[in-house]
Design a protein that fits this description.
Number of helices: 15
Largest sheet: 8 strands, mixed
Number of domains: 2
Distance between the termini: 32 Å
CATH superfamily of the largest domain: P-loop containing nucleotide triphosphate hydrolases
Bound molecules: adenosine-5'-diphosphate, magnesium ion
Shape: flat
Helix content: 40-55%
CATH class of the largest domain: Alpha Beta
Structural class: alpha/beta
Order of helices and strands: EEEHEEHHHEHHHHEHEHEEHHHHEEH
Radius of gyration: 23 Å
Number of strands: 12
CATH topology of the largest domain: Rossmann fold
Length: 349
């Protein structure tokens, strides 16, 4: 079989806000038909990553490609290169000055190209990417019926034929486990789980290639969570969906994700297939996340020790700096030289 086709490629994504680096140099790709889990504690930058992909932000730097086409690009790295060249210019020799001028011109071209792609009209609303939000109450308009909510995107997309819209809305309602009769009702008439099914229907009706599900079950009762996860899993197989599944703990994504990326404070710290990540977690933060998952095994539970992650204790990055490295094929860990050597030793042991 040939390499699975890459649907989404996130390359060195940075999203800096005034006071913090919400996402800092994050890279990953999602292959067609894959479920990619993005995990990390609250505030680590998961939602910002999702919102950058659906172009709710003008990203600081980096590139996002969808089906091989650049849909978002930031200009920060090019601006930095220009500023550095200008600074060097002050004391440079005449020959070096000529080189620096060429560098600045080249970076200006990059900025132009980035802006052209980022603001391209056809990229403004990438309807092939849809988002399901964490809080189904906040994300549904209380004054709109289920029908109106689900039909809205189709209408914005330009569909005018009422019979086409009707058919799509009723079909998707059934597909997510609701019924036609629900179409005329308002969000407050539904339970939390049903509301999230409406959120799923609103996304799926657009026939997206990629769904970003941002903690879609975090606000639901534990008993309901599995139902919504199963629904997404069924839809994924029926419709051949690709899903970026965001969660704050590993237990939710474990059985559902093909690959998992772990984020900590704006950085990706580990990325591997789901099986590999659970079998050989390497980064101390991943280990801490794993140690927090209870298992229905009394013997295991009795001995389970919750590990805490304190970056200042876990690493010495004063001289030997970390970067993302591939420790075994497809298994990437944020680590420095010393840690890289140790992780490889541990695997051999
Ligand atoms: N629009 C914004 N303006 C400023 N800071 C933001 C904005 N959105 C998020 N942040 C900050 O960025 C960081 C990452 O937030 P977020 O992506 O929502 O994390 P997560 O989804 O993992 O909980 C947090 O510190 C948050 O406070
Ligand atoms: Mg979030």
């Amino acid at each position: 079989m040939s390499e699975q086709q890459v649907l989404l490629k996130v390359e060195n994504l940075c999203q800096y806000f005034k006071i913090n680096k919400a996402v800092d140099d994050v890279s990953f790709d999602i292959k067609k038909g894959e479920v990619f889990g993005l995990v990390g504690e609250s505030g680590c930058g998961k939602t910002t990553t999702g919102r950058s992909i659906i172009k709710l932000y003008d990203i600081t730097s980096g590139n996002i490609y969808f089906n091989g086409k650049r849909i978002a690009a930031g200009t920060g790295s090019y601006r930095n290169a220009i500023n550095a060249a200008r600074e060097e210019m002050k004391t440079a020799s005449p020959e070096r000055k000529a080189e620096l001028k060429a560098i600045i011109a080249e970076q200006r071209e990059q900025i132009k190209a980035a802006k052209r792609d980022h603001f391209a009209k056809e990229n403004r609303s990438v309807t092939q990417i849809q988002m399901i939000f964490q809080d189904p109450i906040a994300s549904l308009d209380p004054r709109m019926t289920v029908y109106e909510t689900i039909a809205e995107g189709l209408k914005i997309q330009g569909e005018k034929d009422k019979s086409v819209i009707d058919e799509k809305v009723y079909k998707v309602l059934e597909r997510v486990g609701l019924v036609r009769e629900h179409a005329g009702r308002y969000p407050h008439e539904f339970s939390g789980g049903q509301r999230q099914r409406i959120g799923v229907a609103r996304a799926v009706v657009m026939e997206p290639e990629l769904i970003i599900a941002d903690e879609p079950v975090s606000a639901l009762d534990v008993s309901i969570q599995a139902q919504v996860i199963n629904l997404l899993n069924d839809l994924r197989h029926e419709l051949g969906l690709t899903i970026l599944f965001i969660a704050h703990d590993l237990s939710v994504v474990k059985y559902f994700s093909d690959r998992i990326g772990v984020m900590y404070y704006g950085k990706m710290v580990e990325l591997a297939t789901s099986d590999e990540l659970f079998a050989h977690p390497m980064h101390p933060y991943t280990r801490a996340l794993l140690s927090a998952i209870p298992l229905p095994d009394p013997a295991y539970e009795k001995n389970r020790v919750r590990e805490k992650y304190n970056p200042l204790e876990a690493h010495d990055y004063t001289v030997d700096k970390p970067r993302m490295r591939e420790v075994t094929p497809g298994h990437f860990v944020q680590c420095n030289d010393a840690e890289f050597a140790r992780y490889q030793q541990e695997l051999k042991a």
